[in-house]
Design goal:
The complex is a heterodimer.
Chain A lengths: L8 E6 L3 H5 L8 E5 L9 H14 L6 E5 L8 H8 L6 E4 L5 H18 L7 E6 L2 H4 L2 H5 L7 E4 L1 H8 L11 H14 L2 E4 L8 H14 L3 E4 L3 H10 L3 H19 L6 E2 L2 E2 L2 H16 L11
Parallel strand pairs in A: 1-2, 1-8, 2-3, 3-4, 4-5, 5-6, 6-7, 7-8
Antiparallel strand pairs in A: 9-10
Helix pairs in contact in A: 2-3, 9-10, 11-12
Chain B lengths: L2 E6 L7 E8 L5 E6 L3 H18 L5 E7 L4 H18 L8
Parallel strand pairs in B: 3-4
Antiparallel strand pairs in B: 1-2, 2-4
Helix pairs in contact in B: 1-2
Classes of the chains: A alpha/beta, B alpha+beta.
Chain lengths: 300, 97
């Protein structure tokens, strides 16, 4: 299921850099993004598009999820990006500057035509809309629900703060409200919530703090712009041994209550209600997916 | 008669710098290759260049390549980009010589 895949990190790879495209899978990110948009100057859009197309056609990226950030359909480059990339069946198209459900529906329709023409199953290529404007943020729910192709909502903080005329600080309080709205829209729609990049590649501590903060808000992962950021974000998004132990105790108490037909589960004198159980199960699922808990998992 | 020149790629590791000059008067494709992989893979590289140009219906051109360990998919991408740019720069786009 593309909506439940582990996406703690999504690593941007400039689409016109052959060395990085070849090595994309070795950096350990859960998902890689071959970028045809902001990382590529206007004069090199054609070169990046052809290079990424050939890489998708030829190279194997076993393990990592391969996605492509195309240019928006409203630009002169968007349609050609879709026409060259979709037939190569990447897992997902990352669609920038999404502001309304119509942006998703236009992409959905074009992708359906291209899939049919290429002999692919209709709907096999997913979409992750990137919401990075005030207008887009006002339509989060309709964007997330626009198509079954949507696997996650991706928040873009740099463009969003620029659109607002706000200052983006390391503390990030100016973004708490919109980030919570992204998570809420994602949860209502049954898709993941993915956070923006952290631009200072030399500030690992700041990156960890931000990643931990957005995880606590409910995000499932975060975009990264440099391979050295991958491990930092993974550690923030991977439950600690203490969290896993606590979650396991909750689940065990629930199972014992069910087995004894007592109807009410309690742990250390506190009742375990549905939200507590859901949180515990979410932590264990995340730990299991990250390979640090559950069956066969290794503890940190 | 179409003429035009296009360049693509870089001299960075794993890449190739490719220049394609369309030449309507030429009877075929001339290819000049330079780089560390040429001695081992010259035949394969020439084949890739010819196949890529043929797919664009280009039959007369001069191609200069400086490669830095580019994989075949990279070489083909750079040749295609340079060739498309040459076609776009030429006088009659679509009149493929």
């Amino acid at each position: 299921m593309r909506t439940h895949r582990l996406r703690r990190t999504s690593l941007y790879i400039p689409g016109n850099n052959p060395a990085m495209l070849i090595n994309a899978a070795v950096y350990g990110a859960d998902s890689v993004i071959f970028d045809l948009e902001d990382a590529i100057p206007v004069t090199e859009k054609d070169a990046a598009r052809i290079l990424v197309r050939n890489a998708l056609h030829t190279l194997s990226y076993s393990g990592a999820e391969v996605t492509v950030r195309v240019n928006a359909l409203s630009t002169p480059f968007g349609r050609e990006d879709f026409e060259e990339i979709v037939p190569l069946a990447p897992s997902l198209i990352r669609l920038p500057k999404c502001e309304t459900a119509e942006d998703i529906l236009r992409a959905d329709e074009l992708m359906g035509e291209l899939e049919q023409r290429s002999g692919l199953e209709i709907g096999s290529v997913g979409i992750i809309p990137i919401v990075e404007s005030a207008y887009g943020a006002s339509n989060l729910l309709s964007i997330a629900k626009a198509s079954p192709r949507v696997a996650a909502l991706n928040f873009g903080a740099e463009d969003y703060t620029a659109d607002l005329g706000a200052e983006r600080t390391k503390e990030g309080r100016e973004l708490d409200d919109v980030r919570s709205k992204v998570v809420a829209a994602a949860r209502i729609s049954g898709v993941q919530a993915l956070d923006s990049v952290f631009s200072d590649i030399n500030d690992a501590e700041g990156l960890f703090d931000e990643a931990l903060r957005v995880r606590r808000l409910g995000f499932d992962g975060k975009s990264v712009i440099h391979p050295r950021q991958v491990g930092v974000v993974h550690s923030a998004f991977t439950p600690s041994e203490r969290e896993i132990d606590s979650a396991e105790r909750v689940v065990r108490a629930l199972e014992e209550a069910e087995a004894s037909r007592s109807g009410v589960a309690a742990l250390n004198g506190r009742m375990i209600d549905a939200p507590v159980a859901a949180k515990a199960r979410r932590i264990l699922a995340l730990a299991c997916a990250a390979g640090v808990g559950g069956e066969g998992g290794e503890r940190r | 008669m179409s003429t035009g020149c296009g360049q693509a790629g870089t001299l960075e590791s794993c890449d190739a710098l490719v220049m394609v000059i369309l030449d309507a008067a030429a009877s075929g494709v001339s290819i000049a290759l330079d780089g560390p992989s040429v001695s081992a893979f010259e035949e394969e590289m020439r084949h890739s260049v010819e196949e890529t140009l043929s797919s664009l219906k280009i039959v007369g051109a001069s191609v200069t390549i400086s490669e830095r360990g580019a994989l075949d998919c990279t070489l083909r991408a750079r040749v295609e980009t340079a060739a498309r740019r040459a076609l776009a720069a030429g006088e009659g786009i679509g009149d493929r010589l």
